[in-house]
Amino acid sequence: MSIVNSVIVTMKQLVVLIALIMNFASATPWIHHSFDSLMDVKSYPNVFLYTERILGYDGRAFLNQARDLYDRYNPSVLQPHEQPIIPKIIHQIWIGGPLPEVFKKYMQTWQELHPDWHYVLWDDAKVKELFPLYNQRFYDESESMGVKSDLLKWEIVYRYGGVYADVDFECLRPLDQLNHTYDFYTALQPFDAFFVQLGAALFAAYPGHPVLRHCIETIQDDWHHQGAPKKSGPVHFSKSFIATAGKDGRKDIAFPAFYFYPQGSTERVLKYDEWISNGAYAIHHWAKSWMPTQTRRPQFRTFDNPRSSEVWND
After folding, report:
1. Average of pLDDT values for 51-68?
2. Top-confidence residue, 18 or 46
3. How far apart are CA 90 and CA 121, in angstroms?
4. Rounded to whole angstroms, what are the CA distances from 237 to 44, 185, 199, 303?
5. 20 to 30 A from 214, CA-CA: which of 67, 138, 156, 277?
6. Which of 37, 35, 32, 34 is closest to 62 using CA atoms?
7. Rounded CA gap, 63 and 59, in Å?
8. Cis (ω within 30 of 0) for the bond into 100?
9. From CA 149, how far away is CA 173, in angstroms rounded?
10. Enclosing H/E stretch for 282
11. How far is CA 128 from CA 123, 132, 233, in A?
């Protein structure tokens, strides 16, 4: 190939890349905020103490790790690839009975904002396609729908790649730019839970990602713990992220809570205009469907899951 032809090819590639970037910028402009301004650790002086005493890991070191990855890899620093790194698939799970009507409006937002993506709802019938799971023994042993869903989501995204979101997650903006930029992304939970931990209700990765492999392979190490968060959920997830994220040059990131959890688990006021104008991608409504009915917000008390509610903290 001549030098002239090489230059022409390079220029064409550059034009395609610029067009891609402009397309993302016009559709879903990234709105940058500093990590510390969003996490507001000064308002939660005991968060590191509680994390170490109750969850068993160094919350300050974890927060520093997340801050470092965000400062190095936030969308103000990285440019999206021409092709998606993470497959454009949205996975959601509902098992244990009919899907409650209250979740359908949230689930619809993922399909409306990602019309060219593949959408999969994993229900009681479809999850059988996954069997046997790596952790099939633990899946069969647990009666908690929360734990079962955790075990499923780690393996689903590990096998197929894509975005996983709980059915009580509402999408506010398309995620295309993130799937073209990252190997793995998720977000920290707000500190109103008094811990430094990831939210396990939304994450995305390419197939076979090491964070998810670690999540799957270490379930047996945490199975003795009481309650879904430590056994299979956000605490377990956080430990896998701490151990493996960002290694070998991978572009892994845990966004500050605001981008995916603009409303804390104890908050009730919806501020859609404020959240969207400041760059939030989604909102978690904290349905806690696997917990006892009386512990949920009023709009999520219209359905019950009796056995799962009885064993939710086993």
Report:
1. 97
2. 46
3. 8
4. 22, 12, 8, 28
5. 67
6. 35
7. 6
8. no
9. 25
10. strand 282-284
11. 9, 8, 21
Phi, psi of 166 (to 5 degrees): -60, 155
Q: Could you tell me the CA-to-CA distances from 311 to 28, 51, 166, 307, 314 in Å, in that order?
A: 41, 24, 20, 7, 5
Tokens of 25: 């910028």
In which band, very low, low, confident or very high, does the pLDDT at 193 lie, cut at 50, 70 and 90?
A: confident
pTM tops 0.90: no
Q: Is residue 85 over pLDDT 70?
A: yes
Under a CB-based contact definition with an 8 Å cutoff, are residues 203 and 255 in contact? no
Give the closest residue to 28 by CA, choosing from 243, 238, 175: 175
Residue 124's CB is within 10 A of a number of other CB atoms, namely: 11
Whether 48 contacts 196, CB under 8 Å: yes
| Residues 215-226 as b or e (16 or more Cβ within 10 Å = b) | bbeebeebbeee
The DSSP secondary structure of 133-162, one letter per residue, reads PTTHHHHHH---HHHHHHHHHHHHHHHH-E
* Beta-sheet pairing, 202-205 with 162-165: antiparallel
| CA gap 203, 22 in Å, rounded | 25
pLDDT score, position 296: 62
Backbone torsions φ then ψ of 187, nearest 5 degrees: -150, 155
Whole-Å CA distances, 250 to 30, 154, 283: 21, 19, 26
- Angle (deg, nearest 10), helices 145-160 and 210-217: 140
- The helix (run of H) or strand (run of E) holding residue 122 is strand 118-122
**CA angle (261, 178, 249) in 5-degree steps:** 110
- Own/partner pairs, 17-26, CB within 8 angstroms, 24+ separation: 17/79, 17/82, 20/80, 20/82, 20/180, 21/79, 21/80, 24/80, 24/176, 24/177, 24/180
